[in-house]
Amino acid sequence: MKDYSRCLFGNVRSRNAPAVPLVCMILALMLAVPAGASLSESVKQMLIQSGYKPSNVGVLVRDMTNDSVLIALNAEEPFIPASVQKLVTASAAIDLLGIDYRFQTKVFAGGAFDRDSGTIQGDLYVRGGGDPGFLAERLWLFVQHITHQGVRAIKGDLVLDDCFFSDNVSGPGFSEDKSSRAYEAPTAALSASFNTVAVHVAPGSSVGSPVHVRPFPSIRGVKIVSTALTTAADKPSGIQVKTEEMDGRTAILVYGGMSIDAKPRYVYRKVWQTWENFGWVLQALFDECGIVLEGRVRRACVPDSVKASGPLYEFTSKPLTEFIGHMFKYSSNFAAEMVFRTIDAEKGTGKGTWKGAGDVIRKWWKAQDLPGAIPAANGSGMGNRNRLSPAQAVALLTREWRAKTTAPDFVSALSVAGVDGTLERRFGSSRLKGIVRAKTGTLNNYGVGNLAGFVLLPDRTLVFAVLINNSGPDQYRHWETHQRILELSVPSPKKKRAGSRAAGPRDRGTATKRDQ
Fold first, then answer.
1. Could you say which DSSP state residue 221 is in?
2. Euclidean distance between CA atoms 428 and 442, whole angstroms
3. What is the pLDDT of residue 513?
4. Which residues in the chain come in under a pLDDT of 70?
5. Which of 149, 329, 377, 462 is 20 to 30 A from 82 in CA distance terms?
């Protein structure tokens, strides 16, 4: 078996722990070679029997208790990581921005503010800071706080400043077609509701009647174009929902049929405008909260002369850990790209560009003595422009595990097998349920089905990366392969002998509730 001591451990810097001497690592790996070689060959044969080309699969499983490699297959080969790339983005953000980093949205008065009457004699500026968490309830709270400052009327315009990021709203790896999928939503320094719209569809009261279509949030910038009709109960629902850009607005197109006995549901699609959408939502909330806007909504950077007087109000986001949870458990591309661009805005060019963020992260990667080099083309792993080897993923995860002050936040943000997030419906019948914490990565167009994370055993912890870039088997087969490889790494618990004492949690080889 190849010696992975340098590419995995070497001089990798932990935030809180000194590097483990390299000679100890090598010795541990030498002692582990026979078992690892045997398991690796078993994995290779299993892949062949399952219809995989072994060269399209990379695996590395390591026991962090003794730094032994259990399985290694193509461990140093680069693979398309898909959403496993979010591990890189999160780790870099924790280091560069800080675990408790908070996004700031500032409100400025562009004219004299009479607190007695609540009137601003000029424009009201809102300067975005890349907050990924402006959902409907947070936007409502934001407007409530503006009213708490005494604002009741704006004689000028509502001016939206999204200059914290560059004008480009779609990064490398995102399709340039007319896709309206929510996971391809644009990003901007002022973004509302993940730049998506929830479209509620429900059958009409009788066969042949129109399907009820209601967008949430309900704003003036969204247009509904629906030809969908209610069909008989014995006909399957074939309703289709998509969005398109139409005359500067987002049009919701609904067509097909919906069975009369079908349950109402939400369909999530992206909006095609960013700052405009933010403005439409604010206008609706201004109306609801009693703020009169006499002017229009427009886009501009806050002038230095207005900044000089200081903000009227500052709205602070939830901490970075909240959005790492979105990135890991729900694989939010939107959150990942917002964090990615913020890295450049704060620590790079100051323009919030994808290129700038990639440059910063590549320098950060090298500074941590992590193995090799990475493209870091975007923050989410969309498309085929990123590359990551199993060895690189495991080195990164090992570093995070050993970072005492931030490891709890990082590990708890990962999905738990059979419990939540993108792993909720996986490992349900496996002994690994509840003890695997990992990040998934899926790109059907490229046959990508990846998993990287930890196996939390009572007496030890395994760190692993299984990267599959194989277009043959489908995703369900990839899921089965992940599970089989990890189960090979964790021997089955011994059966209890007749008359012996009942086995406790640690004897059964499963985690206690506290360990989970």
1. T
2. 19
3. 30
4. 1-36, 176-177, 494-516
5. 462
pLDDT tens-digit map of 393-432: 999 999 999 999 999 999 999 999 999 999 999 999 999 9
Closest by Cα among 60, 48, 5 to 29: 5
Task: Strands of 262-333 (E only): list them.
Answer: 265-270, 292-293, 297-299, 313-316
Angle subtended at Cα 104 by Cα 98 and Cα 108, rounded to the nearest 5 degrees: 155
Q: Report residue 299 CA to chain centroid gap.
A: 28
Helical axes 320-329 vs 333-347, angle rounded to 10°:
140
Q: What is the 3-state secondary structure (H, E, C) of 21-32?
A: CHHHHHHHHHHH
Q: What is the pLDDT of residue 344?
A: 99
pLDDT at site 509? 35
CA distances from 115 to 109, 112, 118, 289, 488 (A): 12, 9, 5, 17, 69
Which among 259, 309, 6, 281 is positioned nearest to 135, based on CA atoms?
281
- 259: β partners: 231
Joined together, the tokens standing for residue 461 give 């912890």
**Calculated CA dihedral for residues 67, 68, 74, 80, nearest 10 degrees:** -40
Task: Please tell me the predicted confidence (pLDDT) of residue 503.
Answer: 37
The secondary element (H helix, E strand) that includes residue 124 is strand 124-127
Q: Which residue segments constitute the domains of the chain, with CATH numbers given? A: 5-98+321-491 (3.40.710.10), 104-169+274-318 (3.50.80.20), 192-270 (no CATH)
Question: Where would I find the H helices in 332-467?
Answer: 333-347, 354-367, 390-401, 407-413
Structure tokens at 129: 């800071």
Q: What is the reported pLDDT for 36?
A: 58
> For tokens 């909240």, what's the residue?
322
In the beta sheet, which residues pair with residue 452? 439, 465
Helix (H) or strand (E) holding 215: strand 212-216
CA distance 368 to 439: 22
Beta bridge partners of 37: none
Asked if 257 and 284 count as a contact pair (C-beta separation under 8 A), the reply is no
